[in-house]
Amino acid sequence: MSARVHSRYGRRLADTAVAGQETVIDLEVRRFFCGHAGCGKKTFAEQVEHLTFRYGRRTVTLQRLLQQVAFRRGRRFGAILIDMDSRHPVDVLPDHTADTFADWLRQHPHIGTVCRDRGGAFAEDAERGQPGISQVADRWHLLHNLATGLEKTVTRHRSCLKVSQPDSEQPTAPARTSGEETPYERKIRERHRDVHELFQRGLTIDAISARLGLDRKTVRRYARAATAESLMRERPSRSSALTPHKPYLARRWAEGCDNAQTLRDEIAARGYQGCRKSVRRFLNTLARHNGPQAVPPPPPAVADVVRWIIGRPENQSDQARQDLKDVCGRCQEIAEACRLARGFATILRRRDGHRLGDWLTQADASQVKEIRTFANGLRKDLDAVTAGLTLPLNSGAVEGNVTRIKFLKRQHYGRAGFDLLRRRILLAH
User: Fold this and answer.
1) What pTM does this model have?
2) 250: Cβ contacts below 8 Å, ≥ 6 apart
3) pLDDT, tens digit, for every residue of 70-87?
4) Which residues touch 116 (CB under 8 Å, ≥6 apart)?
């Protein structure tokens, strides 16, 4: 329990529909300080009973409803066990729970090595079934975990993927040429001429004000000015709701985006509350004074950058290598992640498990948090990971048999029970 409020923040929860209409709850919850000295959490958020759950984007009621829909077919998942020497299945378990696999290992004490994915359940099951059994982490899953972390890193620095445009190509505010008179200056000059002509005819300030439709103070100010140029001081800039967003609009317009509605939605997320017409008028001004803009090439996709990093450099095109070099030159953190990720991929492909300790030391000193997180995950399963980076075993045979199982299940049209399916899996080689 805690009574020290740290802060408040908003949560947006999807709820069950009302009369066919989508229902969304805007909820403000509190975050509290944790007063327990031994707890690693400094703050924690409150949960509303029967309404919210941790990290949930929907209410408890809607979550239960979706679970009923998803699980109503009674889907069950089993576990297939493959002999890594013959690459043939040796048994099929009716589920993938810890107890079932641990019991199977106890009944087969001759098993000396388990090759598995990164899931913690099978690691614990193997240890429970045969304490001290040798375990090997699959290399594909190791590389997949690394790619997931890299994707988060590149996504955080998505702005670095865009090629910056030269300053000379950036749209600037409309500037008048030398000697060109602006509409504002022309209006002042014409009004000054009219006021002085009427004033020389002997009309009073009130009469001039009535004839020209101007305020008396305005007429008096123009009458007192000897020349129109004395009135043409720097016009005070009129700030509007669009003014703070004009630099952003100019940059996006230079990037090739000229859709007023799209840009209006983008700046609305940045706090703009005006209309689309104001955005359209500003874009028209940019187009008149800067001419058509060449659309720059789109930035590389996050998935492409991740593939360039963890893929084999010798299998990549010259353009891909150059694009990756450009991205790393624009972002130091992506460059560091690329260096460490390629180092780990080299260890994995060459099966140099003895070099893993040095790589983990470099990862700990890295500024990329996703690389540090990946390294911490390797340490929790260090023996199996080291074996996976050293031994030739992998889970490729398992994936191949899973594909064959899907074919057998389609032949049954979903009507065969587990016993028949297990027999066909074990007998069909």
Assistant:
1) 0.55
2) 170, 171, 172, 286
3) 744 456 678 889 888 888
4) 122, 123, 126, 135, 136, 137, 138, 384, 395
d(C-alpha 203, C-alpha 198), whole Å? 6
- Integer angstrom CA distances of residue 372 from 45, 85, 215, 409: 26, 35, 70, 42
Q: Which residues of the chain have pLDDT under 50?
A: 71-73, 167-175, 177-178, 234
CA distance 390 to 384: 10
Tokens matching residue 245: 């967003």
Residue type, 5: V
Pick from 78, 16, 11, 73: nearest CA to 47: 11
Token pair in block for residue 151: 């994707």
Q: Which two tokens stand for residue 150?
A: 């890299």
Cβ-contact 403, 80 below 8 angstroms: no
The token pair at 326 is: 């450009």
Q: What is the token pair recorded at 9?
A: 């923040």
- Amino acid (1-letter code) at residue 333: E
Buried b / exposed e over 35-56, threshold 16 CB at 10 Å, is eeeeeeeeeebeeeeeebeeee
Say how far apart CA 374 and CA 363 lie, in whole Å: 9
From start to end of 19-99, where are the E strands? 21-33, 43-45, 79-83, 88-93
What does the DSSP 8-state code read for residue 299?
A: P
Q: Give the three-state DSSP class for 383.
A: helix
Q: Token pair of 253, please?
A: 């317009």
CA-CA distance, 102 to 123, in Å (whole number)? 10
